[in-house]
Amino acid sequence: METNIQAEPKKRILSGIQPSGALTLGNYVGALRNWVQLQKEEQYESYYMIADLHSITVRQEPKDLRKNCMDLLALFLACGLDGEKEPIFFQSHIPAHTQLGWVLDCNTYMGELSRMTQFKDKSRKHADNINAGLFTYPSLMAADILLYQADLVPVGKDQKQHLELTRDLAVRFNNAYSDTFKVPEPYIPKVGAKIMSLQEPTQKMSKSDPNENSYILLLDPIDKIVKKIKRAVTDSEARVCLGEGKEGVENLMSIYSAMTGKTMDEITAEFDGKGYGDFKAAVAEAVVEVLRPIQEKHADLMKNKDYLESIYRKGAEMANYTARKTISKVYRKVGFIQP
């Protein structure tokens, strides 16, 4: 007698990045590479969002925003994401994001928003444009997640506060209107290399750093990447190993490990008796070997706008299908007349 055993439905993950400029090597190692691996493993159902609505809380030059959006889409694909398999979409193409964002605005307390550290940080940096969107965007971020009934959300240290608010809003809405949203959990990927600034190795690598020698952009010219690594801060000991006061060397070892898969012990043994010149040359070669094919693929994609358009249109169609089901349920529960 045969029995039909149905497979457990895959858990759903929502991942997103703002199109606020070029991505760094840290973004690749900490996010994009992990997304590609998750997609290959087929353990989860993933949605990949280019968060263009969030980017305008800070003033943008329209032509630059459009270019950044297309660059980011092409980078997603160049790094290995398959837009035919799972949706890659622009947030602004899914009307339900702002629709649910407004409903959640009306269920979010002023005190909760005022405690958000990113609001305080961005208010200091952009004192001439402390706008309402900057204040309420955590509600929109919650809408992004809850709209797709995400089970898991990849979060870094700077996003934990927003996920906690999202969970609170899901529970609050469910209690007021009956079960509507899944309460998402944080997704903590396998521990990987944390890429730090090449000039201030106690600080995270960031493209907003005023010193461009502190970061490597995925689309930096090859010769520029090599020069930045050669200029990276080390120390006077000239020994490739871990140790107190060796943050710069440890950062380069982390980068080399992330690019080659070698352990710290293997790297220490490989460069035993060699100086920093040899070590930096090897790190640069390893980074270039990973980034060159990404850059070449990106350049090819940017010449094929029709293909890129087909990807984001298909992504929007797939995302809209899920989003409409959620917003229809929400509108009905809060009492709106269905169209």
Features:
3-stranded parallel sheet, Tyrosyl-Transfer RNA Synthetase, globular, Rossmann fold, single chain, mainly alpha, 339 residues
Describe the structure concisely:
The protein is mainly α and 339 residues long. 54% of the residues lie in helices and 7% in strands. The relative contact order is 0.14.
Structural class call reads mainly alpha
CATH homologous superfamily grouping of the largest domain: HUPs
Helix content: 40-55%
- Kindly state the mean pLDDT as a whole number? 91
List low-pLDDT spans.
Answer: none
What gross morphology would you assign? globular
Total count of strands:
5
How are the strands of the biggest sheet laid out side by side? Answer: 1-2-3
- Output the number of helix runs: 13
Supply the CATH class of the largest domain.
Answer: Alpha Beta
Oligomer classification: single chain
Strand/helix succession: EHEHHEHHHHEHEHHHHH
The number of distinct structural domains comes to: 2
Largest sheet: 3 strands, parallel
Radius of gyration: 22 Å
Tell me the span between the first and last alpha carbons. Answer: 49 Å
CATH topology of the largest domain: Rossmann fold
Q: How would you describe this structure to a colleague?
A:
The protein is mainly α. The chain folds into two domains: 11-192 and 305-334, HUPs (Rossmann fold); 212-300, Tyrosyl-Transfer RNA Synthetase, CATH 1.10.240.10. The chain is 54% helix and 7% strand. It contains 13 helices and five strands. It has helices spanning 25-41, 52-55, 62-78, 96-105, 110-114, 117-125, 132-147, 160-177, 222-230, 247-260, 264-270, 276-302, 305-334; strands at residues 11-17, 44-50, 88-90, 152-154, 185-187. The strands form two sheets. Strands 1-2-3 form a three-stranded parallel sheet. Strands 4-5 form a two-stranded parallel ribbon. Helix 8 (160-177) links the parallel strand 4 and strand 5. Helix 3 packs across helix 12, helix 4 (96-105) runs parallel beside helix 13 and helix 10 crosses helix 12 (276-302). The longest helix is centred in the last third of the chain and has 30 residues, at 305-334. It is globular. It starts with 10 loop residues before the first strand and ends in a 5-residue tail after the last helix.
